[in-house]
Amino acid sequence: MDQKKQRRNRQIFLIVLLLALIIIVSLISISVGSVNISLKNVVGILMGWDIGNNTFKSIVMDIRLPRVLATVIGGACLAVSGLLLQIFFRNPIVEPYVLGISSGASLFVGLVVLGGYTFGVKHVTPMFLFGGAFIGAMIVMLAVVFAAKKVKNITTLLIIGMMAGFICSALTSMLTAFADKESLHGFIMWTMGSFSGFSWLQDKYLYILGVPFILLSFLLSKPLNAMLFGENYALSMGLSIKTFRMIIILIASVLTATITAFAGPIAFVGLAVPHMVRITFGTSDNRILIPGVIISGALMTGVCDLGARMLLAPTELPLGAITSLFGAPIVIYLLLRKGDDL
After folding, report:
1. Cα–Cα nearest to 292, from 6, 18, 20, 10
2. Which end of the chain has fewer CB atoms within 10 angstroms, the N or the C?
3. Tens of pLDDT along 71-127?
4. Would you state the CATH architecture of domain 21-337?
5. Model pTM?
6. At what angle do helices 39-46 and 2-31 cross, to 10 degrees?
């Protein structure tokens, strides 16, 4: 009992620590940039105090705060999506990017952005982007699930997912050959992945679409725990496997599509964060993992976004490049650790 209590206290301490780190990283992200603003002024602006500088207030409230809020929900969505897919496929190196889900979302966003003018769509709204990303994510996800029923070897399944991603990437490349220069430039910038230029309207869409499905994933903690022991055990607990699979597919696809639509494809957050949380928290209990993954995903994305802005300032690096540099070593470690048993 003492060990269990100590472990629970440690987990609570880690959650509080991570929340504090998110606040610290967020304040630093708001403070630094082409125009540096002191932390004192940042806190004053956020608290609604009159600091006597409207320029600083505009920078904080209209530019930097929306971006920071986007990184928080974006990282949480990607991390939860990765955790759900790893449980669903019972494989440690599965995430939306590896299985081609992000590539499918990118293809249909490309159809909306690059092909919109051809079909008479002169103004692409956020909901158009989300609709395209969601359809693409669902198509690839359903294809991978269908393949999962046909093959037993998990390596074969991963290769199928990767091939689906390559097909989507190839079709996306073909689209660029027929696009006009203006829309092509915007799409290329989008594919690099970034939370730059986020507005309050985009944040509104992110939170309206993302938060309910994150909460739903937490409500599914007990069924997810049952799935860890295999489908037969889950069936014995009265769980409808077919219905549960579709719910997991829906949640993972919506979370992936939401972030991909607005910020572009961002790799490795959904892969790396669940493993870091499992190791750090020392548990596989999804009642603990899901809150830990939400907070850690937000923190990782916030740190990577800050690095993308500041490492080679004033040039901003693609966020996807920073998350890949952070996440790729974890994938390599997993492959070396698992060896031939992967």
Report:
1. 18
2. N
3. 999 999 999 999 998 888 777 778 887 778 888 888 888 888 776 544 455 566 767
4. Orthogonal Bundle (1.10)
5. 0.87
6. 100
